[in-house]
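Final report, closing paragraph on structural work. Over the funding period we assembled a curated collection of sequence-structure pairs, and we close with a single example.
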Amino acid sequence: MSELKIALEEAAGEGIISSTQAERLLPYLAQRNIGVTAIGGDRSAHQPTDAPNSLEDTEAPRFIRGFHDVLITIGIVVLLVGLWGLANRYVSLVAIVILAEVLVRRQRLALPAVVLTIALVQWLIYTMISYISSAPSLVDNFTLAALVLAAPLPLVLSLFYWRYRVPLSLALLLFSLFGLLLAAIFYVIGSALGSSNLPIDYPILTLVILLAAALGSFAVAMRFDLSDPGRVTRRSDVAFWLHLATAPALLYSTILLALRLELANSGVVFTNLTNVLFGGYTQAVTVLVVVLVMMLIGLIIDRRAFVTAGLVSLGLATGALLQHNNAGFEKVGFLVLMIVGLIVLVIGIGWADLRRFVVRRLPEGIQAKLPALR
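Its predicted structure, as stored:
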């Protein structure tokens, strides 16, 4: 299956077929056992399609197809950085559009498509920040400035996705819609409460809203993910990007809200995450529990982003626990690195076995909707 997928992706990259045709051909050919047998071997001795390779990574990034893409991408980055420093910023926008027409629409190069999408978003955000900085009425009003910043993103990204069909642009489009909705909610609530800076004046309310937005984003990502459990279509690519951004948003909104509620009850002033972790045993345990739950979710849905998103918090919480247990300060850093490294290696090496152990304890109805065990 993986060889067939690679062949179709390469054909799309060379312009022989379109990306849409490649996505539609893959399940069609796989169902007929075309391309899944060993080349030059006995066709009657092919591997069964219901026994997936446990070492095959279903999250393999499809935007890296070879060093040709990497070389082109290096050229794009160097060119855009040079234009940014020498010319008007609108020249960079023109260059992004021209490069997208040649490299994305015509040649279907995946990695350059990702880089150009990121460059477009970066250009747009910088332009909007420059505009906001020049308007005193926006500088002094956080909620209104956030609304103005988020407003053009959905339109620009929808046009970019319509033209070039880059999965990352669709994921960013969905996130920009969430961002615009959040900005609108902050503006409406801030106006009702008479606050121009809602996050500072009402931190708990802000964290509740952010957590709700992160849960909504996770629901959208899961909708894309569950619609393609075999991970053979563009929907899986969109889900990959959504999970990549949703995981840290969900993790840290949960952690910050839990810590803020704990500190509010204890009467302690909330400062920052590092001080909180090294200031209390209970807070460190709270962070550790949240990180472990996120890792469990990642195992169930077969998304490693939920593991990597919590590594920093895992290290901070582990360090806090070690300090509270009178570990030598000069050795805490090395102990934290060793423990986190061991956890990552255990999860990484035993991912398939751990996932099999966890998923098989879920109801069969849920198991049927999840990616196949390997």
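Residues 234-266 form the longest helix (33 residues). DSSP finds 19 helices and no strands in the chain. We thank the funder for supporting this effort.
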